[in-house]
Each structure stands twice: as C-alpha cells, then as structure tokens.
Amino acid sequence: MEKDFLNTEEYENYKPKTEKQGFIMYFNFMDDFNELSDSELGVVIRAAYEYAMFGTCESTKDFTDRIQKAIFNRIKNVIDIDNKKYKEKCYLNSLRRKSKDKKKTETSNEIEIYSE
After folding, report:
1. Model-wide pTM > 0.85
2. For the segment 89-109, what is each residue's pLDDT rounded down to a tens digit?
3. Other Cβ atoms closer than 10 A to 13
4. 43-56 residues labelled b (16+ CB within 10 A) or e (exposed)
5. Which of 20, 46, 56, 77 has its CA 20 to 30 A from that of 70?
C-alpha cells in the first residue's frame, strides 16, 4: 500500500488507540556508550526514557558535555523514527479495519435484501 496518506490531515490528527509500552535500544549504540562513564551514561539513559515516554526532555540540562548531548540526539532520532513507523502501522491497520467493517456491512445488507 502506498504511503499517500502521510500528507493527509486525517493522518496528522491520528492518535493510536494504544500507547507504545517501550522503545528499542540498538546494539550499535554501545560504541557511543563506551565513551561515557557509568554516571554520564545513566543521565543519558534517563533522558532517553523521559523523551520516549513524554516526547519532551528536561533531563538534558543535566548533561555535562557535548558527547552526552550527541549520544542523546542519536537515541532521540531513533525514537522519533520508530514512533513514526508505529503511528503509520497503527493508521494502516485502522484503515484496513474500517474497510473490512464496511465490506461486512455491505454483505449483510445484500443478504437482508435477498432474504425478504
């Protein structure tokens, strides 16, 4: 199915019925994580969780250097991409459900017409 729906107002206003219950930390972040101390990494991970849960992050003010900010920005970009994919998948599923329900309704109406 083409992604023509991405530029529609309906899609822009769409909110998935279920909230995501988590986010993915990819293995390729490990090289970046190794550049930080445990306490610096803890601040970055806490900020990533805050961003994933609320879409905003006040914890970035606790970053002590540019490396933390750069690593956080990589994680933030991945969270944004994954959230976009999740929204697209939910929206497509809702369209498919609507289409399926419409077909069921049309079929049941045809049966009622012929049964009279």
Report:
1. no
2. 888 888 888 887 666 666 665
3. 7
4. bbbebbbebbeeee
5. 20
